[in-house]
Amino acid sequence: MRRVLSLLALLMAGSVAVAGAQSMGALTENGVSMDVRAAVALLDAEGPSLTFYLLPFQPTADEIAKLQAEDGMWLLSKPSPDPKKWKSCPHGKFKLGWSFEKASVGDAKKATVYLYGYSVGAEGSNINVNKFGSDVDVAVVGPVKAGQEVTLTSKGSDTLQTTTMAWDLKVKARILPLNKKP
Q: Which of 23, 131, 149, 168 has the most C-beta neighbours closer than 10 Å?
């Protein structure tokens, strides 16, 4: 009975923590777009940082728990949500960090911004964009605390050599704590 209740609680937490299946924006690499269908928001209170996993599918409670435990390697072997478009499962990450401005947690303009895209435009591609929040169209609405719902909005693009990564996001998710391994 306890197992059932624990699983039910985890499933309910996951459904609250992850927004619905409608698009919350897109990541685009060289003209190929990935609709963001779900986001998992994780708070690292020690960093401090807030990371949004940007996914083209609804994650299961087990997959959310893996992300909370800092295990994202399973994403590399996840089947494609659209085999006609991608061989593997594309995904992204949008991270706001306040290690230089710890007193300003929640103020996106005072954060460092890290955007990552995997296999969005080309199989196996890894795109990393690093910027200061003051140089990006970005905002976080809502308290940056575990259990609270926040909305991340951001729009921009960056070109690295011959690759252009663009993003247009309006992501809403309940913040979950990061469960760091000892």
A: 168
DSSP category for residue 80: P
Angle between helices 2-17 and 61-68 (to 10 degrees): 80
Phi, psi for residue 127 in degrees, rounded to 5: -115, 130
Query: What is the identity of the amino acid at 162?
Result: T
Instruction: Find, among 114, 135, 108, the residue nearest to 126 by Cα.
Output: 114
Burial of residue 29 (CB within 10 Å: 0-12, 13-18, 19+) is: buried
CA distance 51 to 54: 9
Residue 135 predicted with pLDDT over 60: yes
Q: What CA–CA distances, in Å, run from 16 to 13, 63, 133, 162, 170?
A: 5, 14, 28, 39, 17
Q: DSSP E strands: which ranges in the chain?
A: 25-29, 32-35, 38-44, 49-55, 91-97, 112-118, 126-132, 137-141, 149-160, 163-177
Q: How confident is the model at residue 15 (pLDDT cuts 50, 70, 90)?
A: very low
Task: Determine how many CB atoms are found less than 10 A away from the CB of residue 7.
Answer: 12
Q: What does the mean pLDDT of the chain come to?
A: 89
This prediction has a pTM of: 0.88
Q: What is the DSSP letter of 64?
A: H
